C-alpha cells in the first residue's frame, strides 16, 4: 500500500521487550555522515514521519573529510585527527532533523575509518573501510538485519555513485549481507540514483551560476554518475520534507559550506527539488507505478505490508 506523508513526526514503535513493531521497516547503508542527508534525506524523513521504522547504518566517521568551518580546521586528519568525533554530533543533529531515531555505526563508532578518495595513501590505513574484510563487515550488518528485519534495503550502486572507495565498499557490504541473510533478506534492494534528465536540467540551470557543480563539463555523459531514465524504478516525492532535509544539510556544516550548490538546489532551479529522490531497483519485484515513466512512488510498492499508522492514531 502507498505510504502517505504526515507533517507530524512520529516515533517508530518498539515493544516493551525491545522488538520493533512497525509494519514497514527500511534500512539505509551509507558510507559517511552527510551521505544520508544528501542522497536520501527526504526519503528518510517521509518514511519516519509516516511511522515506518527507519534504520540508518553509517560505515565510517568521515575522518578524512574536508573542513569548511575555518575555526575547526585543527580537527583535520593531519592535525588533531578529531574530525570523526565531531561529525558524530553533526550526524546526530541531522537524524533529529529528519526524524530518524535508529542510527548505528557499522560495528560501532570508529570500527572502520574513512578511506579518503580513491588512490590516496589513506586507502591503505589498517582501519580503512576500503581494507575491511568483506565477510566480517557484512556479518556486522547482518546482525542489524536480523534485529530489524527490514523489507527494504537502500545503498549505492556498484560504483558507489561516483567512485569513492567507501561508497563502493558500502555497496559490497550491503549486497553481501543481503546474500547472507537468507530468508531474512529484505524483499527489495534499491540503489540511489540521479536520472540523466535531472542532470541535464541541472547543467543548464547552473551554467551561469558562480557555484556551478558542473563547471568544465559540457556533456551529461561525461559525468562520473547519472542513470538513464529507463533504469530508474522509483521517484520518491517527499516535497513536504524538503525543509527537513535542508535543516539536516545545514548541520553538516564541516562538510557542506554555505556556498554549496545544494543550497541553490533548495531554490529549485532545475525543477528537481531537494524533496525528490530517485532509485534503481537492484533486487526484488517492481511494484505498480505512475506517471509517464511508470516509476514507483513508494519503495514498499508491491509488498504485502500494511501502512504503518502514526503513533496514537
TrEMBL record:
Signal peptide: none annotated. Zn(2+) binds at residues 32, 35, 167. Keywords: Hydrolase, Metal-binding, Zinc. Binds 1 zinc ion per subunit. The keyword Hydrolase applies. Transmembrane segments: none annotated. Its EC number is 3.5.1.103. It catalyses: 1D-myo-inositol 2-acetamido-2-deoxy-alpha-D-glucopyranoside + H2O = 1D-myo-inositol 2-amino-2-deoxy-alpha-D-glucopyranoside + acetate. The keyword Cell inner membrane does not apply. Catalyzes the deacetylation of 1D-myo-inositol 2-acetamido-2-deoxy-alpha-D-glucopyranoside (GlcNAc-Ins) in the mycothiol biosynthesis pathway. This is 1D-myo-inositol 2-acetamido-2-deoxy-alpha-D-glucopyranoside deacetylase. It comes from Planosporangium thailandense.
Amino acid at each position: 500500500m502507498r505510504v502517505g506523508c504526515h507533517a507530524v513526526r512520529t516515533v517508530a514503535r518498539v515493544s516493551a521487550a525491545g522488538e520493533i513493531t512497525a509494519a514497514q521497516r527500511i534500512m539505509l547503508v551509507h558510507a559517511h555522515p552527510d551521505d544520508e542527508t544528501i542522497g536520501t534525506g527526504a526519503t528518510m524523513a517521509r518514511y519516519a514521519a509516516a511511522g515506518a521504522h527507519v534504520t540508518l547504518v553509517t560505515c565510517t566517521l568521515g575522518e578524512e573529510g574536508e573542513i569548511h568551518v575555518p575555526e575547526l580546521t585543527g580537527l583535520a586528519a593531519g592535525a588533531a585527527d578529531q574530525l570523526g568525533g565531531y561529525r558524530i554530533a553533526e550526524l546526530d543533529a541531522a537524524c533529529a532533523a529528519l526524524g530518524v531515531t535508529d542510527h548505528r555505526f557499522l560495528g560501532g563508532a570508529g570500527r572502520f575509518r574513512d578511506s579518503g578518495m580513491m588512490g590516496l595513501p589513506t586507502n591503505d590505513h589498517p582501519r580503512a573501510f576500503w581494507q575491511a574484510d568483506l565477510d566480517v563487515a557484512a556479518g556486522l550488518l547482518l546482525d542489524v538485519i536480523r534485529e530489524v528485519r527490514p523489507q527494504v534495503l537502500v545503498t549505492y550502486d556498484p560504483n558507489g555513485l561516483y567512485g569513492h572507495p567507501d561508497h563502493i565498499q558500502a555497496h559490497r557490504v550491503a549486497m553481501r549481507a543481503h546474500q547472507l541473510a537468507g530468508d531474512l533478506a529484505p524483499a527489495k534492494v534499491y540503489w540511489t540514483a540521479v536520472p540523466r534528465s535531472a542532470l541535464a536540467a541541472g547543467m543548464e540551470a547552473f551554467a551561469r551560476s558562480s557555484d556551478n557543480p558542473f563547471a568544465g563539463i559540457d556533456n551529461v555523459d561525461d559525468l562520473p554518475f547519472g542513470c538513464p531514465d529507463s533504469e530508474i524504478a522509483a521517484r520518491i516525492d517527499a516535497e513536504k520534507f524538503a525543509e527537513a532535509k535542508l535543516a539536516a544539510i545545514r548541520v553538516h556544516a564541516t562538510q557542506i559550506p554555505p556556498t554549496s550548490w545544494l543550497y541553490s538546489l533548495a531554490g529549485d532551479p532545475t525543477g528537481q527539488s531537494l524533496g525528490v529522490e530517485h532509485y534503481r531497483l537492484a533486487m526484488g519485484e517492481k511494484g505498480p507505478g505512475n506517471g509517464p515513466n511508470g516509476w514507483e512512488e513508494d519503495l514498499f510498492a508491491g509488498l504485502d505490508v500494511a501502512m504503518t499508522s502514526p503513533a496514537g492514531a
